Amino acid sequence: MADVVLKNVRKSFGRAHVIHGVDLAIGDGEFIVFVGPSGCGKSTLLRLIAGLEDITSGDLFIGGERVNDLAPAKRGIAMVFQSYALYPHMNVYDNMAFGLEMAKSSKAEIDAKVRAAARMLQIETLLDRKPRQLSGGQRQRVAIGRAIVRDPKVFLFDEPLSNLDAALRVQTRIEIAKLHTDTRATMIYVTHDQVEAMTLADRIVVLNAGRIEQVGTPLDLYHRPANLFVAGFIGSPQMNFIPCTVAEAGQDGIEARLPDGGTVTVPVSSEGVRAGAAVTLGIRPDHVRLSGQGTLTGRIELVEELGENHLLYVNVGRERHLTVREPGDARHEVGQEVGLSLDGGFCHLFRETGEALPLLKPAGFPTSRPSAASTSIA
Amino acid sequence: MSGAALQASAPARETMRGGRSSLTRSRVRAAWIFIAPTLIVLILIAGWPLARTIWFSFTDASLNSLADYQFIGFENYVANYDGEWFGLLTDPDWWHSVWNTVWFTAISVSIETVLGTIVALILNASFPGRGIMRAVILIPWAIPTVVSARMWNWMLHDQFGVINDMLLRLGLIAAPITWTASPDTALWTVVMVDVWKTTPFMALLILAALQMLPGDIYEAAKVDGVHPVKVFFRVTLPLIKPALLVAVIFRALDALRVFDLIYVLTANSRDTMSMSVFARQQLVDFQEVGLGSAASTLIFLIIALLVVITMVAGQVRLSGEVR
Ligand SMILES: Nc1ncnc2c1ncn2[C@@H]1O[C@H](COP(=O)(O)OP(=O)(O)OP(=O)(O)O)[C@@H](O)[C@H]1O
Ligand SMILES: [Mg+2]
């Protein structure tokens, strides 16, 4: 058992409060990914779990045991650093074996472990090399190998792939996923990369300014963001936000009035929402449709071709822009006027406080793209 | 690198002569122009006196008749009159001073290296008041040697010195010790004062090396559960070794030329006489410019030899481990 439980964990550096009371329960064998903007405290939280920083207040349990005062080596964790942190003067073999020497393992046992890890990561031929004779990807593998040989209950990764190029990132990402299926160890992984987060995580933890914004499965966060921050953070390109007022709050949804008069009915719970209240409507770029006479009209300001799809940046007046993602090559040009239709079924509504209004359809969000025919909004 | 790229991209301008392009030749010319002033100054202030000293060592010049001397070949170094040997190389006092100097250098530099490393490790840790500590520790190094030697002379004075007084009060010694005069303690006393004075310098050089080390490997070692002592010997020491070696060579060079400290602390005492003190005695007290120059020349040769040995040994070890 190696579940990790944080109870009201806080951390301050002197007068700077960095982590403000984090509660989180991570199950045994779970793959958890921390995401959040730069400086939100992801690394700090990971280092608190590793024991590289002291917890200012609150409790940390690993495998049911309170480990606040336990040295990092005694916590049954292994950490992979963003900068690799390999010992520059030792060769690959010694880099992996060095920690084991301290654990009083026999020479043969160490040798077997190091070679097994090297085989798994395909670095057997590099064992005699010094770190500076390795490429970035190879170094990263050695760093992961050093973690594997320790046989930890919990793996901690701090942006392990951020120094690799795109192709190597994908490859190493898949290897890490395989490592997780093979070892069934608990893994906590910090990243900036949305794709890494979405593909690797059992559950994603979205952090902002030292607080947890939302915890959930990748699709949960994508389809049911709990607030404006998560909605804006998960998904790329970013969700479009349009300030609206509530025209009517009814049983089967809220009719939101757009700034230039049109309305959209969004099937969300209208509990505690009164007509005239300010709300924010959110819709992902994939769900905005181009149509002859849409809810909104605007002028295309920029077209970005991505190959399998393309992005249109549409100025809808009053310095507001909507991003639209359409499949295939662009059929429009910069400067062209287009109509945009918003399907209420794909929209999110957020209160003035940023909190999302609960969607009425509990079973799940529609997964197919809205077809042109279904965009019949008044 | 950029030079090679430039050359390759301008094949038209390349007029091959002796395997060098005109660009390379103009670079070499520029390099000579830039180092010429340094070379000229060096020749004037170092080369000329050195050459003159070596020349005098082959003459019988004396301080009161510097213009009037004769070339006598190697007689200042070694000479044989009627079966009896003369000259520097047969002078037991000279060899004693060589031994004193080497002993002083070996012992004091060793102690300074160890102490300097310890002090540097302490200063490298973060604790309140670290900035002030770093400044304070440099004070012994900042005081001119003559001043600190005089100061220690007083503190070590056998009748009025504070050190004897303290040791007597503590009951550690029964009678005052003549620290700088007694043959048993004189050289150790010199070593102690030198350690007091020079450890800060050593500590600062090592501290600079420590601060260049990446912090993350220490966190990795922490997660690996490596004992701090082992981390020092297996991680820190190998990584600061190149810098440590440079510091040791620096200090050894200094120590081999030691003069002011010994001269002020113990004057011309034979027990502590270093090579430099010996040379000064010949030159000034005995007015023997020829003999003194011969001693100076030998000092130069001995130091040069030791430096070459150290550098070669260091290189071999370094390349053996790093590569
Ligand atoms: N040792 C420290 N002393 C003071 N403040 C610190 C210290 N370490 C981190 N901080 C502050 O804590 C906050 C969170 O830092 P942290 O490194 O956890 O961010 P992060 O989420 O990992 O960012 P990034 O994505 O850029 O790595 C930052 O505002 C940072 O300035
Ligand atoms: Mg970070």
From TrEMBL, chain A:
Organism ancestry: Bacteria, Pseudomonadati, Pseudomonadota, Alphaproteobacteria, Hyphomicrobiales
Cellular component aspect of the GO annotation: ATP-binding cassette (ABC) transporter complex, substrate-binding subunit-containing; maltose transport complex
The entry's keywords: ATP-binding, Nucleotide-binding, Transport
Record localization: Cell inner membrane
Keyword ATP-binding: yes
InterPro entries assigned: AAA+_ATPase (IPR003593), ABC_transporter-like_ATP-bd (IPR003439), ABC_transporter-like_CS (IPR017871), ABC_transpr_MalK-like (IPR015855), ABC_transpr_MalK/UgpC-like (IPR047641), Mo/tungstate-bd_C_term_dom (IPR008995), NA-bd_OB-fold (IPR012340), P-loop_NTPase (IPR027417)
Molecular function terms, GO-annotated: ABC-type maltose transporter activity; ATP binding; ATP hydrolysis activity
Gene: ugpC
Protein name stated in the entry: sn-glycerol-3-phosphate ABC transporter ATP-binding protein UgpC
Domain of life: Bacteria
